[in-house]
Amino acid sequence: MSQGIDYGTLMHRAMRSLIREVLDSVAENGLPGQHHFFITFDTSHPGVAIADWLRNRYPDEMTVVIQHWFDNLEVTDQGFSVTLNFGDAPEPLHIPYDAISTFVDPSVEFGLRFERPEDEEEDIHPAGTGEEEGEAPLAEDVEAEEEQHRDAEIVRLDSFRK
Fold first, then answer.
1. In the chain, how long is the greatest CA-to-CA distance?
2. Which residue from 15, 56, 92, 152 has the least number of CB within 10 angstroms?
3. Can you spell out the DSSP letters for 76-137?
4. For residue 88, what pLDDT is reported?
């Protein structure tokens, strides 16, 4: 018999199920409104399938953007596959949900982060975007997301006591 309830594992499973449901809806109906996703994942995770040149460039972690241009989005219970544009070259990717470390939809200020015990603060490297052919990467969106995290403020409850 186990010593307790592993709430962390249960929460991660539920959050990954939420990602699957969101991506399944997008595969069926397309992206609604201004929604778009920054998805950061572990490129060395078993089951991740990316081009060798991408794995060489991002040996540990990679962030992709699903926004304007993406194709062949297929969602399964274990992960998803999508074709994204990398410098005018379409590349297929397969990403298991267990490889995802962050999932962010900045259009509605929604984000999930999957903590691992060995996680330390690391730079997120934006890579292939879902941008239309010829458009620059979404540097301003990445900066806006980073700015949102920097703007967080700690409020001490003692200041409200009389």
1. 62
2. 152
3. -SSEEEEEEEETTEEEEEEEEGGGEEEEEEGGGTEEEE---TT-------B-SB-PPTTPPP
4. 83
Q: pTM here?
A: 0.70
Chain centroid offset of residue 114 CA: 10
DSSP-derived letter for residue 32 is: -
- For the chain, what percent of residues have pLDDT higher than 70? 70
Contacts with 21 (C-beta within 8 Å, 6 or more apart), sequence order: none
Distances, alpha carbon 11 to alpha carbons 28, 32, 69, 131, in Å: 26, 26, 31, 32
- 3-state SS, residue 71: strand
106/108 Cα distance (integer angstroms): 5
Kindly report the number of other CB atoms within 10 A of residue 145's CB atom. 19
Q: What is the rounded average pLDDT for all residues in the chain?
A: 78
Beta-bridged to residue 103, according to DSSP, are: 39, 112
Q: Chain centroid to CA 35: how far?
A: 13
Yes or no: say if 58 and 43 are a contact pair by the CB < 8 Å rule.
yes
Give the N- to C-terminal CA distance of the chain in Å, as an integer.
Answer: 49
pLDDT at 139 over 60: no
Under a CB-based contact definition with an 8 Å cutoff, are residues 70 and 83 in contact? yes
